[in-house]
Design a protein that fits this description.
44% of the residues lie in helices and 14% in strands. The protein is of the alpha+beta class and 111 residues long. The chain has two domains: 1-68, no CATH class; 69-110, no CATH class. α1 runs parallel beside α2 (50-64). The longest helix has 19 residues, at 92-110. It is globular and about 40 Å long. The mean pLDDT is 81. It comes from Bipolaricaulis sibiricus. GO terms for molecular function: intramolecular phosphotransferase activity; metal ion binding.
């Protein structure tokens, strides 16, 4: 029998064991590809795993917009009070636009 991550209130699991950043990234990327949302609200609780899982979801949703032609990593810096955004793909203009949009959304949330 396969693993069931979905409970009555969403994805469930022990953070870092069942519920990893990789899983959060992949689920968000799949949701982004399937639903093509114009705007998304990411919420998190107060557990220590919240920021990392939220960043993974944001990166997965943003990468979905690249249609499989690139990748985007959004993560908190380990040494500075900032968020790092790294992107790669064949269309530099599209990458700049995506990174600018993600950075703008992050800045808006920080206000």
């Amino acid at each position: 029998m396969g693993v069931n991550y979905f409970g009555t209130d969403g994805v469930r699991g022990v953070a870092g064991v069942d519920l990893t950043c990789e899983l959060a990234f992949r689920l968000a990327r799949a949701a982004g590809r399937a639903f093509r949302p114009q705007r998304v609200l990411l919420a998190q609780d107060t557990r220590l795993s919240g920021p990392a899982l939220a960043s993974a979801c944001a990166a997965g949703l943003a990468e979905a917009q690249l249609d499989g032609t690139g990748r985007l990593v959004v993560r908190p810096s380990g040494t500075q009070p900032l968020i790092r955004i790294m992107a790669e793909g064949p269309d530099v203009a599209a990458l700049h636009a995506l990174v600018s949009r993600v950075a703008g959304e992050i800045a808006q949330e920080g206000r």
